[in-house]
Amino acid sequence: xxxxxxxxxxxxxxxxxxxxxxxxxxxxxxxxxxxxxxxxxxxxxxxxxxxxxxxxxxxxxxxxxxxxxxxxxxxxxxxxxxxxxxxxxxxxxxxxxxxxxxxxxxxxxxxxxxxxxxxxxxxxxxxxxxxxxxxxxxxxxxxxxxxxxxxxxxxxxxxxxxxxxxxxxxxxxxxxxxxxxxxxxxxxxxxxxxxxxxxxxxxxxxxxxxxxxxxxxxxxxxxxxxxxxxxxxxxxxx
Length: 238
Fold this sequence. Notes:
The chain is an alpha+beta fold. Helices cover about 40% and strands about 15% of the residues. Mean pLDDT is about 80; it is low at about 30-40.
């Protein structure tokens, strides 16, 4: 276990089972306008982590597809023992040269949003701890809603720069049902298999701008679905 303490009285360490309730409370007290839809997904994930914490902890000790399913660090105030922040990270590609900040929740958002951009604030300490702790990561990336102004300021303060803009579309069930009545004029569609990994990798390289391709650093292995993950996806579809 790696610990980090600085002069501000904050201890940064890997998340433990006893921290899950504090993280859940911290999420509920944070500004919903800033967190957006991440609040619900994190709350749901915390419930699953409580149920399967022993198994998740065991899987984190050796390489496997679920090693970083719930991997993160908390910032604990040494004087009060309270949790002031939480960051969740995971590898983005198979070579683990690029890592992703899944989410960050800090108490400062709910108390005084201006503190988020403080270089000595908890948010900055959590990010910099990850940069130093995960030595294999050459590049870090994240996805954030453009309306989360305070979190955008936090990431910019710690060296992140805009890479691309993504737009998500949502269709109501009525429209989906109407579209499903029409027979699409498409060629025969086949399930994706390991044999398609090389072609998918080439398609990804051709369709992606050079800067994004360099940051993502994907390889053929990234387009191969693991047996266990494929089985879980089939069960979910059923």
